[in-house]
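Chapter summary example: a protein plus inosinic acid.
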Amino acid sequence: MPHADAQSNVSTNGRTIRCRGERFRVYLDRDTIQRRVDELGAQISREYEGQCPILIGVLNGAFMFTADLMRAIDIDCEVDFLKLSSYGAEKVSSGRVHQLKKIDADLDDRHVIVVEDIIDTGLSMEFILDRIQKEYRPASVRVATLLHKHEATQVELPMDYVGFRIDNLFVIGYGLDYGQIARNLADIYILDEE
Ligand code: IMP
Ligand code: MG
């Protein structure tokens, strides 16, 4: 029997876990994630040498990736965040996007890198890029996403830095949630279709 802590909706059993009653298995382990994040950070450091890009992390999901990516960058850089509405407790995108927290920094003349945990339908990123272009005159805008569900993406988007192209299944951990829990898992887990 998997161990279930009375305080928690996540119970672990080796490489599989149960979260909100559904089974997930390890898909990308922490070392694999860290190696790829380090590569992306090195690439950004090379490509932005002599500049000071500003990372715009998309809350809540991208907080962990943004922190690790920033630590992997060895040139001057800044960070700010915006917040979008989440899936709620659903596993499929509603397609409705609301902005819950605005960017505080002035992005005029800045080299902007929008940092996402995952691009699924692409509607959130389309919304963000549209907002940034309407509200500021950035010097450049690029997109970094840890995960890309390429089969689910409905819109054309620039994706300059992609960690992993993944299967079109729901994932949790490393910042990604299922009804707000599971963000604290260090590995990324995928829904285990039994
Ligand atoms: P999109 O607008 O459909 O591209 O969805 C983007 C947002 O939905 C992401 O920033 C995530 O916060 C969330 N999301 C998409 N797929 C998943 C998933 O598999 N697990 C958890 N959150 C997800
Ligand atoms: Mg997100």
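Key point: The chain is about 20% helix and 30% strand.
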